[in-house]
Amino acid sequence: MKIEYSPLDRDKQEIRLLELLPQSRDRKQKLFPTCRIFHACLPAGPRFTALSYVWGDVKNKQVILVDESPVLVTKNLYEAMMALRPIDEPLVMWIDALCINQADDDEKSWQVGLMQEIYRQAHQVLAWLGSADKHSDSVIDHLDCLGGKAELLTRELPSPQEYAWQNLPLVLGSLLRGGVPTAEMMKRLGSVRPLTREDYMPFFGFIDAYYEQNGQKMMRALKDFITRPWWGRVWVLQEIALPENARFVCGTKTISRDRCAAAIRTYRMWWMSLAEKSTAGNPFSLSQY
After folding, report:
1. Which residues belong to any copy of the Heterokaryon incompatibility domain (predicted)?
2. CB–CB of 171/188 below 8 Å?
């Protein structure tokens, strides 16, 4: 159940890509993501989608079909490929676990050296956060709506997108390790790229209304969303900041990287406003969040 790889040409900067085939009408194959692997030269500029994901529990594996042969992959990758299967045309992808011969240390070494360029050249990068839970769809819908409003503030800013995400890996890694309280978590997340609070004030009412409708459940759901295992990966900056087109995928829902960042910044400013009210002796209580 191993992939039979043919050697890559290092001098040509060859990589492997895969075609994730459309959902099959065959009842048996509907249960398995199906793909075929081929070679491409990176300098030639092939059009492909790169997947950013966590491998997950290596002991928990599922079967996919690669070149018509069964291959075991981690459950998280299986679920990602199932969710991303196209309806009509094949989707050309780069997925490290399948496109790099994991049994060849020499190949792994020089292919890892190309990863920055692979993610930079990708037509789009999809960051797979995992399957949906009972609240993730509503969280993404909320962040998408809020971020869409807040993006209007940053559309004309000259700051490069890399700057907006330069602190994210360290911030989220510390959250995962330390059990940080919600208030501190929101404060740290908002440090990715600050704007003045006054710029964001028109959107505070939107957050207030959402909180009044959903209560503490909303904050817990947000925390669960932004502390999923993907956010703690050391390669987050390289994989999500470099490409022009990057999206988060959770179950069947997606949100763009830039829109998600705009929503997080808005929450930071909102939280700072609440903290100031509390410090000034306002009867408003931060503990309710």
Report:
1. 48-239
2. yes
